[in-house]
Specification:
Elements lengths: L2 E2 L3 E3 L10 E2 L3 E3 L10 E3 L40 E3 L6 E3 L3 E3 L6 E3 L264 E5 L8 E2 L4 E5 L10 E7 L9 E8 L9 E9 L2 E8 L10 E7 L1
Parallel strand pairs: 1-3, 2-4, 10-12, 11-13
Antiparallel strand pairs: 4-5, 6-8, 7-9, 12-17, 13-16, 14-17, 15-16
């Protein structure tokens, strides 16, 4: 065939080898075995027509993803068939080259140390899900340059350790535990820096209880809650051994007054033994726990040396505040007494020096020692004796009829009186009229172990006594 310079129509012809050179376009009524179709071929200088069945390579073509669908393209047919993932510090990955369509897992806890300095750091779990920060065989350190909070919006927050759990042991200047209704602390063994106390408390007005975790086994031996100061180290042979550490249990100080508002009282310090368990219809109630104050045991003697003295136990009331620029007040009281009995039971006994032979000193010179107060009324006559075992009391006599210038004597039996005791006696009241009914003058006429005598002298010149006397006494 020759060269055609104008559009031509091609009629069906037998297939022939060779080519047709066209400078314009060709409209074919039939190309190939199918008839009845027209195809317009673009004007090209030199190119090959792409067909569906033949194996051909397309170049310099743009395929729009918006109007075409590419499918079943294997990664091996792509020049770049994977994505490279590099795990950062502290991260580990299951694969570095991830094929398209594949996956890899990133996990915290790679073998390399990791440091994160990204400003605020938030690590939040999904709603209702637990979060865990776990180190398999190494330590976990979380450090913040500003105030930080670990909290849960609901549920418990647990911080635990298979070994020692250290809170505030390196740089903390103070440590606060709890601002809740109940705080439970188990197995505390503090080794604070000397001079730095461990303080448990609240920023709000709430009580604090340190107690042993309740036993879950019935009938086991009771556990012991000990508050114990640390021992001193032994001497190294060059310096003396140190003293044992002290324990101080102090209630809080009252707040200072302001203007017309009064100052607050100091807090009460109460130490109670445990209450006995309740009985049933067939068993008695349990006894209340005992309460013991003991001074420390003196150290054992070495060969040829003396043993250490036992420690002193002191119970003292608080001193009154300074009276400088104002009015003084009384010192605090100390009360020691046996417990009150119930029903037909008697009150508990208060014993001093009954276990070992001891010297008991009660009061310095001039001290008034009060071993209870009481009252008694005389019966029968003005010479009838009375019994009142108290260090102070009031004796009410019968109506006295002692003649003018005469005396009447009766004995007061009292277990608080020793032979060397001093009895102070005053007349608190006389039911008669002084002068008209005589002039009574009571005196202590004798003292012996366990008793003293009161003699009533009528100092009136002519009139006899007629009335009862209230006589107040104190044993010193």
């Amino acid at each position: 065939m020759g060269l055609y310079t104008n559009p031509v129509n091609l009629s069906p012809i037998a297939q022939q080898a060779g080519s047709i050179n066209v400078s314009g376009s060709i409209t074919a009524a039939s190309v190939g075995p199918t008839t009845g179709q027209q195809h317009t071929l673009p004007a090209v200088t030199s190119d090959t027509v792409a067909v569906l069945a033949a194996a051909q390579t397309l170049t310099n073509k743009t395929i729009s993803g918006a109007s075409n669908t590419l499918s079943n393209i294997a990664n091996a047919s792509l020049s770049n068939s994977s994505v490279t993932v590099t795990a950062g510090a502290g991260l580990a990955t299951t694969s570095s080259a991830i094929a398209l369509g594949g996956s890899a897992t990133l996990s915290v806890g790679g073998t390399a140390d990791a440091t994160y300095s990204t400003g605020a750091f938030t690590w939040a779990g999904a709603s209702g899900k637990a979060m865990s920060l776990v180190a398999t065989s190494a330590a976990i350190t979380v450090t913040a340059a500003a105030a930080s909070t670990w909290s849960t919006s609901s549920g418990a927050l647990t911080i635990d350790s298979a070994a020692a759990l250290n809170l505030g042991t390196t740089n903390a200047t103070s440590m606060s535990l709890g601002n809740a209704a109940n705080v439970t602390v188990y197995n505390i063994d503090g080794n604070a820096t000397p001079g730095s106390p461990i303080i448990f408390g609240f920023t709000q007005e709430r009580s604090w209880t340190i107690r042993i975790k309740p036993s879950v086994t019935v009938g086991t031996t009771a556990a012991i809650l000990r508050i114990q100061a640390g021992d001193s180290a032994a001497s190294d042979g060059v310096t003396n051994a140190g003293n044992g550490n002290q324990i101080s249990i102090t209630a809080g100080a009252g707040g200072a007054g302001n203007g017309t508002k009064t100052a607050g009282a100091g807090g009460t310090c109460t130490m109670n033994s445990g209450t006995g368990g309740a009985g049933t219809s067939s068993v008695n109630g349990g006894n209340g726990g005992s309460f013991t104050f003991n001074g420390g045991l003196g150290g054992a003697a070495g060969t040829g040396t003396a043993a250490g003295a036992g420690g002193t136990t002191t119970l003292a009331g608080g001193n009154a505040g300074s009276a400088t620029g104002g009015t003084g007040n009384v010192g605090g009281n100390v009360s020691i007494h046996g417990g009150a009995g119930s029903g037909a039971g008697v009150n508990g006994t208060l014993s001093l020096g009954t276990t070992t032979t001891s010297t008991i000193t009660v009061g310095a010179a001039g001290t008034i020692v009060n071993f209870g107060q009481g009252t008694v009324t005389q019966a029968t006559s003005i010479t009838t004796g009375v019994t009142l075992n108290a260090s102070s009391g009031i004796v009410t006599t019968v109506s006295a009829s002692t003649a003018a210038q005469a005396t009447s004597t009766f004995t007061v039996t009292n277990s608080c009186v020793a032979a060397a005791s001093v009895i102070k006696l005053t007349m608190g009241a006389y039911s008669g009229t002084f002068g008209t009914n005589g002039t009574p003058v009571p005196i202590v006429s004798s003292v012996s172990g366990g008793s003293f005598n009161i003699t009533i002298y009528n100092a009136h010149a002519s009139n006899a006594l007629s009335g009862t006397l209230k006589l107040h006494f104190v044993v010193v």
